[in-house]
Amino acid sequence: MAPPRCSARAGLPLAALVAYAAALVGPVVAQQKPPRVQPPTERVTRTFTTPDGSRFVLVVDASQRQVHWATATWNDGGDDPPGFEGLTQATLLAARGGTWQHGSKDPEAERAALEALDAAWHESMQRPHDQAALARVIERDRAAAALCDARTFPRVLAAAPAHRPELLLRDAIAVHVLTTIEEALPDVAALLVERREQQPLRGLYRAWTEVTLARATARATDHAARLHGEVLALMMPLSPAARMLETPAGIVAPRRADALACWAATQHPSRTVHVLFGELDPDRTEATLRKAFAATHLSQPPAAVVVPPRPLTAERRSVVGGVDQPRLAVAWALPSGADRWTVEAAVRWLAVVPRSQLAQRLARANRPGTNFSARAPWPRTVNGAGLLLLDLDDANGTDGLLEVVLGACADAVDKDIPDGWLFQTNMAMQHDWNLHADDPRLLTAAIAEHALVWPDADIVTGAPPRVGGADVTRLLRQTFAAHPAVVEGHR
Amino acid sequence: MKTTALAKHAALLLALATLGSCDSAPPPPGPAPDQPQPPVDEQPPAALTEKVLLLANGMTAYLSQASADADTQVQLGVLAGGLFVAPGLAELAAEVILRSTDPTQGNGTLEQEIEQLGGTIDVRVGLLTTWFDVRVPRGKGLPALEALRVALQSASHSRHQIERMRDELVASICDEVVRDPLRQSARALLLAEKSTEHYVNGLIDLDASQVTLFLERLYRPERCVLNFREGRALPTLERFLHEPAELAIEGWRPPPATPGNSDLLPRQCEPGLTWIENGAPRARVGVMLRRPQAGEPEDAESLLLQSCLTLDGTGGRLEQLQEEAGLGHLSWQTELLQLPDAEALLMTTEATGDEAARLWRVVLRARQSLVDVPPTPSELQLAFRRTRLAAELPMLDADARLRQFGRLATRNLSIDVLRDRLADLQRPGQFDATAAARRFAEQPLWTVVIGPPRPDGVDAHTARLLPPQFHPQDTATEAAPQPGEEGPWLERALAACGGRARFAEIVGFTATATMQPGDAPPAADRITWSTDGTLQRQRTVLGQVVTTTLTGDDCSEQLGTVRQSLTAEDAAALRQEMARHPIMLLAAYARGALPFRAVAERTVGDRRMMVLEARDERFERLRVQVDVESSLVRVVETWQRFADGSIVHLSENWLDYRTTGDLRVPHLRRASWNDGQHETETVYTDWRTQFAPR
Fold it and tell me: Which residues from A are below 8 Å from B364, CB to CB?
């Protein structure tokens, strides 16, 4: 059978060439456009909170042709019930299946079918070798699937119109992002509220299995995870990140009610930040959003408790065995309220190859086989209340490595930061910013992410500000004034 | 003045495009290049925020004032895209501009210079144009322009450097193909390539001299458009184009190009089903619908129909027909695939092989259904709503937006032209859905399937992701062959050119060629050759047609009514000439009719060649040289004995490999007798391989 073919006229070259050549530098055509004489306006930022408690950031950029809408929520495990780490992420994945209003053929019947499926699933989990129980799960899954159409909600959203709704999972943050136009904002807003309020979490058990397997795989290949878990145990024992670093004990099944509670907690308006970026009228948009985000039926979650790490007054050490090769993790508490760009520059000064203080110290100590990396603030928590973490590994052993690290820290504080280095680092930070700022969707997601993590900081929509050398030195001096937590890993 | 100059420029481009050939453009009309040309708009209104002007060196510039807090954008577009000259050449040439260094001046590469300004640079190769998209922090426009000019005039000519860049580019493209085969395959098809394998083969095949010539002929100011957007007033931006003279972009005046043409390749995009087997149990399926060039008013109808077909992979006729075909469980992910001068909507999903084949038919049926049953008013209502957004999608990122603004500005069109057209179409009686659906049904539509074997009965273009012989780490360390052994070289050559099985079925060829024998008049040949020794050749020289026929022992030449028998030696020489074509040699080897033995490894320039000699008495010491990297037969050498007893050494260089049917076939032969005593060049304009019936 021959495949149906397009007409020869559909061929690209000549038609495309002529069209493009005309378009590239075309003759002046009869249709005259009015000259653009309005001076371009700068980006305007407006923040407000809607009656339901949602925090909104509007970034008006007249050079855009669309509106990008990003909703950032926490995915740090803080709302996961103990033993069910990853449940927040599973609910985010399951939420793609639509709402009760858009996607259910019979909401009451489907609700009952999902409850029945939940019961069968638990029964099957408790009796893993019972084929009859497994068959019941499959049968009830089919029954539930027959009562819904998971494509309805995406279709309605596409018709709103909204382009490419997608979920970006960025470490401890989840960002739901889509692209639309200003005229469609009332409809899109209504659909996003509906997604939040009328969530059946279809396909929860598939999403949960997917997340659990992915976590198990990640843990199996992340050799530093055990050291990181120990660092957190020493310095931030209440951090949910420590639980997220543990290897799943096996497939356990969360209750549907737990999942719904988890969804309600993470998606509650008080826990979310929405950023709308693009061509929009701020007054009209604010009015629209205030009307759409008027109330919530989700129960108020308990206030998130973030216990910032306290600077250690004495060094804490720990040793873990069974890692792939000798490793060392060293961490200090960051001073509270540290500026994120200063932290970024400090990390580069201390431990980003090739001219960092740690690289130079390692070279002087003739340790070419040592690999290292640094991150801060880690883990991601509100307002950067975290640690400065150094990771090192060396197949030849870690003897003497801590002294090298501490020497590099002393250098980082004592040495004057050369102007040339500072200039290059600021340029490198601008370059890294530009890498995602080229794409307004990614920029919107980044603004939402930062607004969620740094609620007290100003909204930055442009390139990062210049960081001064004195600020970097001051930050590192404060950080290294306390003692570190040191975790060694042996085979 | 502006209008005239631009109109002439456009007319020139149009003419070049229509003729399918692009010579180096003559200097632009107007003052001599050495005299600074005043700006076209001499007294711009003070508040004007955009402007188009023609620089003294012939470059067209579009200036746009951004808001004071916006980053600076500089874009250089060159009329030198992927359709010019050879596959991959445009991308490699851009890579040379991006990564060349000039140590004598202490300059880094263009990429490094931009990064040191805190900016980013992306190279985007389209069908006709190549773009350098630079984005730097605000206020850094001038140094970015200067870095661009330095890069344009210090492109490397070093064979070694260019070949290193080519190897790095090949490695990087291969990595991308491995990482995201579906997207890269779709991109290759949109670039009018047959497959990623074909594109990589083309790249490997490129010689450094081609890059140098390409840059000389096509990277010229009169073929360039510069878009410059910064948060300063237009007079300041304009001044940055002229000053300082020694670094300003207007001062870029390359020396005259080497005479000759840099032709557009006569390539056609091949819509349809492309099936790539990679052994995966499930197929990744990509359906690509070409979108019309953004911002053109006539695009509106086509975009409306696309929205009737599907809304980002949901809804529309496609979902209905998918449901009816029992494929409703397959859901699509969509993305916009953008080249600087072509766009497509790419929808991807995962399916079984059988489902993938059915899906292809469903997509076609869904599109055809819009012709058979035009969209209903409710469908159209939804489509109008959706198209308002779809029309803006190509301007999603800042680079595409500026490119679009610049293009519309040079045409004096409003950026709202498409919105206005949509509003027009919504008026009663303005939209002829039936006629629009017919036009929509003729637009290219591709489906790519990567995964399990093609089900029986499914006709499709077949392709591979990467050339099978592409294992540079193996070839780099491979030991030289032992004398007498055949080695893997010819097997690799077979794999590189279409596969042993296909070669074993070859029984001849039909070709049309033009031969230029030194200073003698050119000859045009029409050749039909069969491996049983039958030859029919019509040679036209100065209007006279000489017909040569070899059939068994009956060998003759005929000019007009005069017929003359050929000697056995002449007939044998002719037969050997046909049998020496690399495709015929490989076919004979594949059939087991022509064994070879390895002789030596030879280095020619920077290329490693394996020399193999035929073990067959029909030829006088026939040797082939196989390029180790590309596995293509590059040289065929032999000794030819004439009737008078004289012997000459004949060396034939085979170049310009192109995919013709299922095979890669060289289209250019440069033959040299006795080390250059006599030379000919033969260009094959048409080639058809004859296969034994299956």
Answer: 4
